[in-house]
Amino acid sequence: MxxxxxxxxxxxxxxxxxxxxxxxASFQKASSxxxxxxxxxxxxxxxxxxxxxxTIVSIRHSVDTNDEFYSNENKFFDENTPDFSAIINExxxxxxxxxxxxxxxxxxxEHFLNLAKVKEQSFDPKNIELLKEENRLSSEYNVIxxxxxxxxxxxxxxxxxxxxxxxxxxxxxxxxxxxxxxxxLEEKQEELDRIFHHLVGVRHKMALKMGYxxxxxxxxxxxxxxxxxxxxxxxxRKAILDYVVPVVKKxxxxxxxxxxxxxxxxxxxxxxxxxxxxxxxGSPKDIVQNGAIMYKELSPETHDFFQxxxxxxxxxLEAKEGKMAGGYATIISKYKYPFIFSNxxxxxxxxxxxxxxxxxxxQFFRSLNQPLPEYYYPTLEAAEIHSMSMEFFAYxxxxxxxxxxxxxxxxxxxxxxxSFLPYxxxxxxxxxxxxxxxxxxxxERNNEWLAIEKKYxxxxxxxxxxxxxxxxxxxxxxxxYRAPFYYIDYTLAQVCAFQFWEKSEADFxxxxxxxxxxxxxxxxxxxxxxxxxxxxxxxxxxxxxxxxIDKVDRxxxxxxxxxx
Length: 564
Hints:
Number of helices: 24
Structural class: mainly alpha
Shape: globular
Largest sheet: 3 strands, mixed
Strand order of the largest sheet: 3-5-4
Strand content: under 5%
Order of helices and strands: HHHHHHEEHHHHHHHEEEHHHHHHHHHHH
Number of strands: 5
């Protein structure tokens, strides 16, 4: 059935949890690995029941945060998911205590046991009330941002559809839009400060209760990172500082020269060309139709996938009032449906979404037949390889979206991709500082952002803007509230995606075969092993990063952007 035809009924969590307890008890008493594997299938089926309805609620709530019914259902899951998680943690403990661990490892791979271990280490029933509070605070943030009202020329915008004005060719419009955006955030800054300050305290308490020094190690375990740690990430950030920041500085200078307006102001960052930023031609419907043609021509696999998404209406793409900001991809596991959520806004972002989020959902589509739900998708930094690489695999079809602006789009996309890396590293460094220093004041936290922003050369002339000068611009980055430490992932994946771009330029079919293999592996291996299996070089090796960045830099240097 189509997504909107799926009937939602609140699951009887108490009954499902009781059934899970019975299956886990039977698992613990099982006399053979075969018996345990059969019981695992039953546990997976019950988990899918809960997770499916939670996902349906999450999607419908994010599509319309004003819908009272789904807002209440979202609260129900915020309050009750931790109890469900406690039972799933018992399941992982039972797996780790199994006398048949070797046989389970032979059947499903060593990574499954490593995941079970890290999941067990990242959950404690003592934290259930704190987890409920964390869920409540994250949802409160989501609603505030979704319902933000930005007034420009007496017209109301949301954070999801203001982007075209922020990149308008008229500098006065850009300035007014940026001022209005930050004014609306300034009006909510105390609420956003309160929510985040509370979240940091809640997460620090959880870590202390579990015997961790602070939330950093617990945060990494919650993201299922089994093959690298915060020391590796710190070294990687240093490499970005050494090798990427100088390249981005050059790109900024080129932007200033192209625009001919002198040093960039904060409202100029989104404007790239005097002739206007590249915009997709046609309506949202046209973009989707062009996407269908592109995926048909790209490969039989992508054609089957995209037709499936269209047939069952598994995309909600256009921005509207009350809709949550941003974009995401998810799985409705019981139906084996991927789903794409986004906010089309009339900029090149719309095409990026159609490739980026489709990269995620294509991977889901390919790996939903994995034997375990833990393998449906990989850890987040590996998952972003699929999405960011799909953006590059789509390059040969960009003419159908942008017509005469094709080359302008490709230059803008590639230069924007590399320019993102310092920002991603800065957000990550900020998060590490926050959770390593959980007791600092709100003012000290915001001052640290200003220092990090300067370190990575992110800031343009703030021109006296109170909100930006207060060091709070990070508040609109929802990952900080909803998913701590999930942001460096984008940069790690981007370095891998650059390699797929380079390989596809040399031999498209060979590069696509490697990408397809990576998608089929799902989450059956940890990040560094997936990178290896896809014949890519690890971003954690300094010389690898330098080599990748040098190639992108040389390519961009060879383009005459003055004519754009």
